[in-house]
């Protein structure tokens, strides 16, 4: 069963994540996102809106799958995660995030990979909590954050490992436009159509120019950095820390 549904809205493709309770990122969802983006690119849509379902945009990596799958699963999952981030970041047409609820860790990286972010003000949290779990970011994720928000704020976003309420998210410039819950998708569609008024070749080239510093660093450094990230993620002490983190979250929930 697909975890990403394509919902046509005229010349805009709405990609809706519908995967479990909080659209947690696992290998299947990551591969499905990359595949749906490729299909949309080849289908003539002028723009994309990425959104979630229920009360979550995406709550980040499915740590239960990581805990249960251990090292073999991590080695399969991490490349799929980075590939999904890149498929979104490199998509040549306008992509707008309709952030309908919680966007945490990898979920917030997906939002950062989009060209514009419409944020629902209904109470969802937004932020990057990887270091609280004890795992490093893949290089692709960090470069997407750097491209979206600049280097100056990056230490706060990563080292602090905290999440922000909607007011703080907007105050720090992590999202571009507030919306009441029922208006998130309509406003995202409207902005996607505004961006799509730019001739497609012009938009694609400008987007490549804006992203070039990040994509060059990823191209030059990803292989070596991914190997080190994988080494840390699969270390016994890291997997034990993930298991402890999952246990504490389940106790609170």
UniProtKB/TrEMBL annotation:
It comes from the Bacteria. Signal peptide: none annotated. It comes from Prauserella shujinwangii. GO terms for molecular function: catalytic activity. This is Enoyl-CoA hydratase. Gene3D superfamilies: 2-enoyl-CoA Hydratase, Chain A, domain 1. GO terms for biological process: fatty acid beta-oxidation.
């Amino acid at each position: 069963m697909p975890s990403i549904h394509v919902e046509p809205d005229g010349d805009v493709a709405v990609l809706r994540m519908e995967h479990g309770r909080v659209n947690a990122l696992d290998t299947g969802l990551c591969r499905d996102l990359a595949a749906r983006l490729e299909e949309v690119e080849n289908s003539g849509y002028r723009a994309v809106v990425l959104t979630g379902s229920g009360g979550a945009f995406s709550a980040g990596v499915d740590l239960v799958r990581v805990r249960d799958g251990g090292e073999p699963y991590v080695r399969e999952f991490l490349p799929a995660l980075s590939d999904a981030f890149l498929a979104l970041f490199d998509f040549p047409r306008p992509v707008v995030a309709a952030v309908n609820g919680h966007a945490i860790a990898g979920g917030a990286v997906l939002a950062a990979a989009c060209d514009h972010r419409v944020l629902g003000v209904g109470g969802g949290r937004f932020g990057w909590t990887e270091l609280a779990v004890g795992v490093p970011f893949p290089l692709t994720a960090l470069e997407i954050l750097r491209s979206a928000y600049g280097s100056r704020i990056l230490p706060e976003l990563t080292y602090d490992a905290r999440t922000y309420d909607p007011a703080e998210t907007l105050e720090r410039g992590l999202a571009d436009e507030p919306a009441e819950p029922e208006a998130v998708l309509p406003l995202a569609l409207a902005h996607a159509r505004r961006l799509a008024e730019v001739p497609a070749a012009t938009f694609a080239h400008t987007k490549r120019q804006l992203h070039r510093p990040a994509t060059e660093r990823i191209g030059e450094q990803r292989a070596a950095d991914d190997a080190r990230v994988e080494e840390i993620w699969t270390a016994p002490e890291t997997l034990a820390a993930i298991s402890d983190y999952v246990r504490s979250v389940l106790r609170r929930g």
